[in-house]
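TASK: fixed-backbone design
INPUT:
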């Protein structure tokens, strides 16, 4: 595997939260979804990758460079889109870009204007007058214009209406991934990743609880529904979570093949969404 990002045994302790032994590897030309509830540790992990905070333990390698000792070399190859943005509100896009472009020796002004036109961003408009969706587009344009190889997106679609979210997802597919770039997308809006992700890492309470290729994870799991009378005590071992009432039961299994061998054919098996999987794992007492 051609790893663009490697995280090994990353730990960070705060008074009320701990990031515990995070391990992650991203393959070139893929989009990896980094999924978890708010406060699960996504932003702490990203800030560690970006050398914005110092971990207590662990090593991070970005594009072959040690993240601590090669900070400037790495930053020139990263495209970062953060939830809160870091632009001067009273500047126009044109003036903001004039400040940013000289920081990159690889800046391509022709590509920059082509992306502005493609995404319909007005250069004479002030940052403070941009919608949240337009700010996200502008951040992507800047990253694309200096030839970023790895895109790190922290909640890029949070607070956007479904139409704008869908548009940004299409931009990632048609522009970023089509050019064999690599994307780490941290989000709690899992429906976006159902459409585009190659790999998934689920984080809950500072721990990676599940990871792997998206299609394999979804194929391994199933939402199971049926009559509670069909359930025997030892069937509980096959479920991540299980809800029962007098009307029926519903649960998530992480071993669909094994469960099908022991439960009667009257049971219904449905393909879970990424949100279904996250919600069941996040509700487990051990998480």
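OUTPUT:
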């Amino acid at each position: 595997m051609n790893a663009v990002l490697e995280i090994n045994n990353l730990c960070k302790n705060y008074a009320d939260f701990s990031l515990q032994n995070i391990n992650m590897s991203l393959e070139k030309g893929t989009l990896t979804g980094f999924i978890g509830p708010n406060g699960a540790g996504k932003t702490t992990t990203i800030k560690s990758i970006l050398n914005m905070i110092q971990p207590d333990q662990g090593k991070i390698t970005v594009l072959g460079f040690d993240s601590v000792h090669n900070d400037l070399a790495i930053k020139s190859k990263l495209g970062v889109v953060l939830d809160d943005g870091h632009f001067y509100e009273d500047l126009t896009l044109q003036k903001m870009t004039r400040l940013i472009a000289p920081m990159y020796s690889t800046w391509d002004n022709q590509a920059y204007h082509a992306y502005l036109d493609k995404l319909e961003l007005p250069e004479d408009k002030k940052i403070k007058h941009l919608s949240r969706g337009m700010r996200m587009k502008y951040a992507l344009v800047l990253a694309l214009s200096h030839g970023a190889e790895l895109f790190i997106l922290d909640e890029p679609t949070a607070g956007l209406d479904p139409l704008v979210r869908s548009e940004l997802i299409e931009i990632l597919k048609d522009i970023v991934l089509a050019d064999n770039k690599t994307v780490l997308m941290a989000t709690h809006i899992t429906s976006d990743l159902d459409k585009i992700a190659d790999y998934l890492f689920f984080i809950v309470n500072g721990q990676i609880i599940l990871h792997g290729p998206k299609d394999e994870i979804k194929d391994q799991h199933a939402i199971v529904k049926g009559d509670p009378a069909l359930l025997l005590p030892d069937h509980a071992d096959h479920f991540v979570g299980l809800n029962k009432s007098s009307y029926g039961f519903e649960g998530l299994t992480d071993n669909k093949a094994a469960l099908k061998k022991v439960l009667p054919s009257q049971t219904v098996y449905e393909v879970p969404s990424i949100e279904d999987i996250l919600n069941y794992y996040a509700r487990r007492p051990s998480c």
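COMMENT: The chain has a mean pLDDT of 90.
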